Queue: 2 jobs
Job 1
Amino acid sequence: MAGNSFGQAFVVTTAGESHGPANVVVIDGCPPGLAISVEELAAELARRRPGQSALVSQRDEPDVPEILAGVFDGATTGTSIAILIRSVDPRARDYEPIFDKYRPGHADFSYDAKYGVRDPRGGGRASARETVARVAAGAIAKKLVRESFGARIVGYVKQVGALTANVPEPARVTMCEVESFPDGTPNPVRCPDHEASKAMMALIEEVRSERDSIGGVAEIVATGVPAGLGEPVFDKLKAELAKALFSIPAVVGVECGSGFAAAAMRGSEHNDVFVPGPPIATASNRHGGMLGGITTGMPIVLRAAVKPTSSLPREQPTVNKAGQPTTIVTKGRHDPCLLPRFVPVAEAMVAIVLADHWLRWRGQR
Amino acid sequence: MAGNSFGQAFVVTTAGESHGPANVVVIDGCPPGLAISVEELAAELARRRPGQSALVSQRDEPDVPEILAGVFDGATTGTSIAILIRSVDPRARDYEPIFDKYRPGHADFSYDAKYGVRDPRGGGRASARETVARVAAGAIAKKLVRESFGARIVGYVKQVGALTANVPEPARVTMCEVESFPDGTPNPVRCPDHEASKAMMALIEEVRSERDSIGGVAEIVATGVPAGLGEPVFDKLKAELAKALFSIPAVVGVECGSGFAAAAMRGSEHNDVFVPGPPIATASNRHGGMLGGITTGMPIVLRAAVKPTSSLPREQPTVNKAGQPTTIVTKGRHDPCLLPRFVPVAEAMVAIVLADHWLRWRGQR
Amino acid sequence: MAGNSFGQAFVVTTAGESHGPANVVVIDGCPPGLAISVEELAAELARRRPGQSALVSQRDEPDVPEILAGVFDGATTGTSIAILIRSVDPRARDYEPIFDKYRPGHADFSYDAKYGVRDPRGGGRASARETVARVAAGAIAKKLVRESFGARIVGYVKQVGALTANVPEPARVTMCEVESFPDGTPNPVRCPDHEASKAMMALIEEVRSERDSIGGVAEIVATGVPAGLGEPVFDKLKAELAKALFSIPAVVGVECGSGFAAAAMRGSEHNDVFVPGPPIATASNRHGGMLGGITTGMPIVLRAAVKPTSSLPREQPTVNKAGQPTTIVTKGRHDPCLLPRFVPVAEAMVAIVLADHWLRWRGQR
Amino acid sequence: MAGNSFGQAFVVTTAGESHGPANVVVIDGCPPGLAISVEELAAELARRRPGQSALVSQRDEPDVPEILAGVFDGATTGTSIAILIRSVDPRARDYEPIFDKYRPGHADFSYDAKYGVRDPRGGGRASARETVARVAAGAIAKKLVRESFGARIVGYVKQVGALTANVPEPARVTMCEVESFPDGTPNPVRCPDHEASKAMMALIEEVRSERDSIGGVAEIVATGVPAGLGEPVFDKLKAELAKALFSIPAVVGVECGSGFAAAAMRGSEHNDVFVPGPPIATASNRHGGMLGGITTGMPIVLRAAVKPTSSLPREQPTVNKAGQPTTIVTKGRHDPCLLPRFVPVAEAMVAIVLADHWLRWRGQR
């Protein structure tokens, strides 16, 4: 009701502020018997972790998960799972000088308008710090959908600023291509077009040196999803996925399949032709894996537009709580481009939606 | 759970198939004392109605609403409201020859995959016919948010094919400009840029004559919404609005504020500067009225990309239920461009989200 | 949210007032492929119908159901089912003289306190008329649980006033014993102890002739329910069943298994001993078919206490809306004892809970 | 969905097993600005704590709560609240010899039937240990309803075995009378009839010495609740309260107001007469504070029947997981009578329901 839960059958509930003692996630409805280890959770959290490369925030959070409930003898029991992730490097004092000021592009003002009060340390509940809980839950969801029906969810950076990657076959991109260069060194920008990656890295360094930030687009692809997932009318899978992605901080646009490009197309060129099975498939995938909001068995293809980081290490004009003009410099340790760390969060949300709809489908069929 | 309800405090539940006897909507949670007449419902339904102009489907549905419950002496009682809209022109026989074939771009195949069975008459539950129930509920939601806090929700066609309207000030567009030309004649394309309207009309006529269809983009603007609506984390208002719009048939993309254009921007150019109040506002509105998923009091600006109509009155290759190749010609009476009739549906969904979050906000504060 | 829906996977939403034009029920989440006919619905509605015997209200409602959606070719499609039941004998004028007065034992006052307004015709939404929608939904739920796992749900009158039936083996009572006497004539009081039935009939006639009413207890038994249904902690099956029964008008107490008698028992006499399987069972059934809120495979046994009808055809002191003393005589056609018509409503609610938890169980396992 | 959450506007989600590392509760929807301290939580937890008197379980759990999120500067922020309670005295080894055996009266068998696996240490998720999380959430709910509208929720033991307390005016019982004897010494049995208390204490000691257990009844009274809370039809306040109480382990019956005694009454003696206001009230309170499931402003009076503790420190026959006959002695440290520690749990659940419906009411009005 108050917005801190997601899903109906695989239900994720989170709590935690940017600079509070911990983030917590409770996952309710996970089937029993799924093997889960702290190491698996930690591996996904490491992909989202600040400080993982020179391109991202240098806040030093090891993000060590502790499983408090719902797992016995290394496997889920079917009851609610609780995971705790303590904060160790909050440095709330960085924010004290600006407690009273509204950071441009942030939720300080809107939270005050909503609640009358707020936790002003680094964005409180509105901080992207909360996504650590999503990634922990997503690690379980990913494993559930992989073990249940072989789903594979891969996200990557498609665009940074005006630089767009060339990814001719989204459904063939591997996690390895996203995370590493051919020589095995980590690819900090998470773009499978390695030429573009280098340009993106240079661009991100450039905006950082100019004390600025830059936006971008991520693409998330889910393959191996059986036909038939999603609900009619309001809970179409495309609608749930759009909500899931739009719920991530800084997302300002979502499209699936052809997306906005479909606006300029004719039906005769947009319709994907069905081809004989089994299994029945389509010759092309402009529909992005869903028709009528229900999966067709073709790869699910989504893109999310992410705005440039709002926190800038430069002086910006703004107002304070009393409505008077002032200026602000945000001193926290921020990402000049959100996209590299956005990828695992987006994957997590897609996994949670698929896990939820898988269980919903099983219930009715 | 099974996808036919929307909202948590203002809850809309619908039922009805394209060629069944009726569509029904139950609205639960509407505050008591809101004056509602059948005429108000009928006025909104008329905007969505097929047969309203030469540009749209010629199916002849008067769409007369009957209020069955929840309204006494012309006003809501606070208990559940039920509205019935009978179908009078189903012509299900148009579909009999294709019961066994999968229409390209439609949900026939994915519904079969999901349920094993389906109502094959004109798309059954997956047909856009179900949006009649959304518009009826939206009429009540619109009135609630208008009477409660003066919200005004205006949608219009922003793009058809490659033709893009010039709408310099979205928050100033009036319903009158959208619905009519300056001489008072109806504007069947619902675009406030009247020059663009004429080009769009010509384009739609052209694709129709070529037995084809065309996509487009609608923009929906809500003004008068107070700061503070929306929930943190998963139920951010932007996420709920994205889900609401993506739940409408044929929507393949949604963006708010700067949207996908933000990907190419720097933080220093994207951040909207706060300006002193009261009330505190922003000098620009690239954030589209929401920060951290919570309203700022600035106009909410959304865009939805709509794919070209999948039903085409021409032969298309496809497969039948057995997976064998065949061809199909859809004979129903379809819109060559969905956008003009999409506008009132999109407005309805935005109104329902705002009504829901208004009640949720009141509950907690 | 606003109380007019029940269930999470098999979701029942209702609307309709005592003297409005119709009652409506939408059922969302029913699996596809379940054969449903109007005749099956009508048969259950006939058991609840007023006017069915001399013992009950003489309001003449045929209660003819119309299926508007969700059923095609005689079977459910998996999408939302809508059923309409028009009212034909409202006689709202009976209530006009008392629109302004608070009937003792009724919700007139509390609804005014809640909503500020209310539909005063015969109780409006608070009337037991709404249970017609529950019985229609329950007919589908009953069929679902019978076809899915052979569940049989039988309710009967256990007590009227001080008269208590002797039902030594609740799990062996048949619908036939409840509905009819051995000679095949209908048993209007729905008690399988036929000696007690006659005394109950006489008692009900006596209170009616004295322009009074009488309370009672119904027992509802579900057999054939597999072990493992129900959820931990808050959604224990016993909790959901208690809510379901307590949601029916006039219910003031619910117990399962040993119920209140357990308060005076020792653990050594209350614990049911497990006996070797397969299937594992218990030698006795003081636990009423659920342990830890989850079914054991033993019969589910519930009892509901129903208060005496509040509407009395005699003068009672009360106050009017202005808070001034007055007197009232309710002229509607009321049941002197609610129990006989309560039985099918209670069965319906038990069926809905079992259907819901069956689907929830399937989703997670 | 999977049963570990309760409420719609004040939503409580819990996780934790009897012998796991911790119990966790997340509370979503609490209004901002409510002062909450760890001490207030600890005070309520102390009332539920094992080891608090010679009458109850001697497991030594200090139950120290840690607030992880949702509270800043000593007050709620409106975002989700997380509370952690670590376990310090699990002694899981007590249970190892019986991991494979089904304890009579416990959920071991039904959990195995449901999930196929379970945490066998002390009942796992089915243990009454989970109620620690309810009490922590209830402490916040109690404070919310007290500060919002002056509600006072007092529970006490009404019956132990055949011993029934004489409590002539439930609405006048004070917490002090329940918790202490007139001389200020703690009343370990929590019964405001102090003569009865002593007999109850003796009875509990007697059953303990006989290695047995005994059942009982608790009465919970809420005063100061305004007229108008509760929802129509399915979410009647009586139904929600019944579910809340029935969700507590060992509850087998719930009644409100006259309860099962109403079955033997006539309408003319049961109806409570309205008396002129302001505020309008009733001369008697057989309706227990709710009519039509909505509060009247009169005290809410509920009773819950609690079965005798199923764990007995004596040999009992049972079966093992393979279905073979065996015997069992439960060695954990158990309460010979659950009632004294049940009282704060029942109060917590009543508080949570009232908090939830208060917020729901505010949302709609």
Job 2
Amino acid sequence: MLRYMTSGESHGKAMLAILDGMPAGLRVEDSIINVDLSRRMLGHGRGKRMRIEADKVRILSGLRKSVTIGSPITFMVNNIDDTIDRLPAVLHPRPGHADLSGAIKYDLKDIRSVLERASARETVARVAVGAVAKALLAEFGIDIASHVTAIGGIEAEIKDLGFKQLVSISERSPVRCADPDASKLMCAEIDDAMEEGDSLGGIFELIVRGAPAGLGSYTQWDKRISARIAFAVMSIQAVRGVSFGTGIGAAHLRGSMVHDEIFYEKKRGFYRTTNNAGGIEGGITTGEAIVVQAVMKPIATLGLPLASVNIRTKRPVRAALERADVCAVPAAGVIGEAVIAIELAGAMIEKFGGDSVREMKRNYNGYKEQVRKF
Amino acid sequence: MLRYMTSGESHGKAMLAILDGMPAGLRVEDSIINVDLSRRMLGHGRGKRMRIEADKVRILSGLRKSVTIGSPITFMVNNIDDTIDRLPAVLHPRPGHADLSGAIKYDLKDIRSVLERASARETVARVAVGAVAKALLAEFGIDIASHVTAIGGIEAEIKDLGFKQLVSISERSPVRCADPDASKLMCAEIDDAMEEGDSLGGIFELIVRGAPAGLGSYTQWDKRISARIAFAVMSIQAVRGVSFGTGIGAAHLRGSMVHDEIFYEKKRGFYRTTNNAGGIEGGITTGEAIVVQAVMKPIATLGLPLASVNIRTKRPVRAALERADVCAVPAAGVIGEAVIAIELAGAMIEKFGGDSVREMKRNYNGYKEQVRKF
Amino acid sequence: MLRYMTSGESHGKAMLAILDGMPAGLRVEDSIINVDLSRRMLGHGRGKRMRIEADKVRILSGLRKSVTIGSPITFMVNNIDDTIDRLPAVLHPRPGHADLSGAIKYDLKDIRSVLERASARETVARVAVGAVAKALLAEFGIDIASHVTAIGGIEAEIKDLGFKQLVSISERSPVRCADPDASKLMCAEIDDAMEEGDSLGGIFELIVRGAPAGLGSYTQWDKRISARIAFAVMSIQAVRGVSFGTGIGAAHLRGSMVHDEIFYEKKRGFYRTTNNAGGIEGGITTGEAIVVQAVMKPIATLGLPLASVNIRTKRPVRAALERADVCAVPAAGVIGEAVIAIELAGAMIEKFGGDSVREMKRNYNGYKEQVRKF
Amino acid sequence: MLRYMTSGESHGKAMLAILDGMPAGLRVEDSIINVDLSRRMLGHGRGKRMRIEADKVRILSGLRKSVTIGSPITFMVNNIDDTIDRLPAVLHPRPGHADLSGAIKYDLKDIRSVLERASARETVARVAVGAVAKALLAEFGIDIASHVTAIGGIEAEIKDLGFKQLVSISERSPVRCADPDASKLMCAEIDDAMEEGDSLGGIFELIVRGAPAGLGSYTQWDKRISARIAFAVMSIQAVRGVSFGTGIGAAHLRGSMVHDEIFYEKKRGFYRTTNNAGGIEGGITTGEAIVVQAVMKPIATLGLPLASVNIRTKRPVRAALERADVCAVPAAGVIGEAVIAIELAGAMIEKFGGDSVREMKRNYNGYKEQVRKF
């Protein structure tokens, strides 16, 4: 079983996570984590905080000479701005944030005690965990990518790109979008929104290549890999919708246009010529690419704040102003990669055992052979 | 902690569930469950199976004189057609179902062993569990409704209806749609698809009225009520997308148009005049109505079956033909009600304790007073 | 992941369980379950209830033609005496039972609503689940036995018997004790206690032969197989103590007398000549026999009831008299077998994957080879 | 839900833990944690490591101005000796430790990668977590103590001491034993064992005063508070047995001598004059003191090492020599306090809700009133 918890406040000492259940024998260099931490900070539309923090991970446990030993792995990313105990009270809850409900729930008279943890800075820890999950998946030839398909109403048109091409184009785009024209329009839209003290949301897509058929299950409601992925993706701050394959489009088409017919060739085994299902049927992976879309609402902290109420005086005010991004969809894609990687690494460990990478691989190869001969 | 597991095969002896963690002192009549079991079977476009089974629940444990006693509750709905051991082998996997991946995963040479459990008949058990969860929520003035907003490309236009009106109109519609005009078009579309041996999907919406502010949490990724609801809804067979509030629309609008401004009146406390967030901010309920959309793909068993492959001979064939619906979106809404009820009942028990209804209510009232004075 | 829940009241319709996570391809005949259900009912000192119920399992799901298919398995054992709704209220809590605390916790004014579920009749369901777990373990050459080592102060002297001999002698004893002399004294002690309206407890031992080295882990507190076994065994009604290997004796000896020295022979691999540790070191199985003792307190329902208080009038009374055993230690051993089997089956599935028996065996054999070459 | 994970290797950078689910509004000073960290290091018979490390906690998250805010709390205790990557390989597994099975399980050719995590130094993190759990319990008048009842065959005779007296005497004893005479003999026995290169185990007892009736449940096997406590206590390194109340003695007495009769007085409510049950009946707390014994085996690292085998050459050798204690029973009691505190804090949060201390107290007081009027 793979599990993790994160901790840390936005202006506390550090963002942390403990990841429990990784097999022994996996090489984990800080650098593979730091690459994703950097990718998480980029993107046109990010705020000043991104320039203040230059996140580098410290791994405090679970490795010997950069190799896992089966023990829990601890990730720590220091906050340079660790002034939590000196920062002033926040009394004006921001619409769209946990501010008001969080203060009510936990009986806190200073909203800072909410926003410090509710902040998307928490995702630093998840990205670190996800980088290790990706490293495990890579041992099995499983790759994960993300790209932005919409920002602020501008929708990308993605031609039929291969996985590699999609990655290489989107990673070069300032908004991580694989449509260069849309990319430019998105940047302009972001600049415009920034100028007007407003914010933008959008859509990103996750693609997982190389996952075997047979992860997840229909046998119990909470084992469906689709449901687990939705759980993970929807747990990302500001995500408001999740869909698979052709997504919402599936609602409007007839079955004969949606379901992916099944073919067989001796060399390839069973295969499909379409992948409308997004790599999952009946809560189980099919062996085709897993394709997930996530809808992100606009950033909830606005340059021109919305109407709110002072929680002490109860008088109408403008919402609090915290350092914030105008648009974080490109970064959210990186976070999406992390959380889907964690779910899939967990599913792989569950199916193939998880004490050592060597054992996992042996079991995996045995299964591949079983599938081949099925 | 509220938890449940279901069991049962489509043509086995029965569909069952054990629900663990309900407080003592809740009245549960079979009738409240049977009402939802009936609602689950209705809807224009359902297949013959629906006419064969007339589902009635038997509660085998957890009640004394129709009142809960804190013990696990067992639900059993008999299958009239319990011929699982005599039914012929299935060798032609149906695209869109768990058939192929399930057989590979579990190393089963007869797909019947997959489809019997992967079948949406499993939701009978979930609807039974959900009916009890609804009964608990009703004690706290929390109501749940569902309605269909799209089928086969026909989209409903829902005028600004109140909760009660929405329920009363949609419950009278043969497709559980609150737009009578769309309702007719949907029925026609279903008839058309049936004639052509095809199937349809669509979209349904869940609305929860009366949930207090403060369920769920941003403090750990797996505590967000939005993520938990997405997990539950995505675990429904054939659901391919989940969204909250204004849903996918949130991706395309600016923050100032999306976030719900905060107001205060002495009598009402904090309130909003819009509810674009769908009742959840930062993974916590706000006290406004919870609004969730679910996208359902078309039924995967088609009257005119798709291309497939015989899993023994590996020769191309047409997919297997099982009894099936043409469209099950109206029923899926009822299932959606059940799973969201279970999640919310669980969140209520977590927040207010769950040993007896009397204790829960006392704790709930104390919290309401705390919120009022916040 | 293997998990299960039980349900059912002592005089309700049935005792049930759902077991989720068993691999496909395991043969499960009702008979193997019924054998253990019968063994659970035997033993000198059992009460009248045992003669009323003749427990036979009905498997309601999860099998096709007596073979598992990966789906959850449902067990039902009917209660012949299913008069729960007609039985009179119980107002006099029995010391030693959940009666008083249960009524207070769940706010129940009739103790019957407590005792119906707190009753050890619940273990019928666990024994059924355990029989399937044993069947899985048997596929890997893992056997489980139990025997009674003490009843009412009479302690058995077990000479150095082999596993098979221990089983064959103890299974023939009316108190499941492998020391024939002690066996007789125990029976006499039971008769004596019965005559005096009193009850007896004792100690049973569980022995697991054939478990591989490497189940459980020291890497996180809740992964230790010793802790998990203690959890399971202590969850048996009336068990008050659990110990491993030489048990409490380990507290009084020096390390040099307790720890099992390590040897190696090419054919056998690593081995020990002693097994004071009871097959577990550092929370991991060593490959030696797992040996667990459980202390059972005397039955809490006495023929000559103890002092109690009427929960309505608050007047002193004698405790309620329910049908009960005088001594149930022999039966508790059978229940112990069940719960340790479930824990070990779960640990095997976790380590070797759990989709099909064929896959598990392939993975297991690969690991055995790895261990051989270590 | 209260949950925690620990991490860290004995000679790694630090020992850590994340504790998730503590209510907001609890004051937590580092000092209350450091007191227990110090108590954990004391005791006659501790090794040199204890003199090297002077453990002080750093809390990295979850507090603002020393008060909890509902967010996960991170504990870090630095290792002064953090030489893990430079320490030589260990090839000679120590009998009694996870060394051999751990290396086999995780496929590690250097036992250091096992012993670094399997080391009881991990309990530093648990003691830190436990100190916060104790602080929460203290808000409800629940106190926890531990004392040593046996070391190396010397058994204490504890006269009928009150809770406070027991604490004050045992805390002054160099072996945390409340019998001054036994205390001296234990010290002598430890000195003797040390001289002979041997080690000792023993027994400690945990006492919890002030827990309300109604924690835990008989309704499902894994909810019994006795089973949960056994799980937690047995997860402590080197613990080999757990028992409740009169412990193993209950096996040998008749029911009439064991079960605690029930009485009632208007002022006190229901009460007992004996507490043989150790505060738990039917898996639920009774309101009497919770009493738990734990058997600890002798330290497995011996000054005069036992026979072992070089895992590379397979030649017979003496087991590896790591810095170690001769006897750690007094410290184990402190660790026992921590783990039982965590279980009980979790049970309190489950029963009374856990968002803020104020809410918990309100709910608790309501329940106390309900119990009073029962």
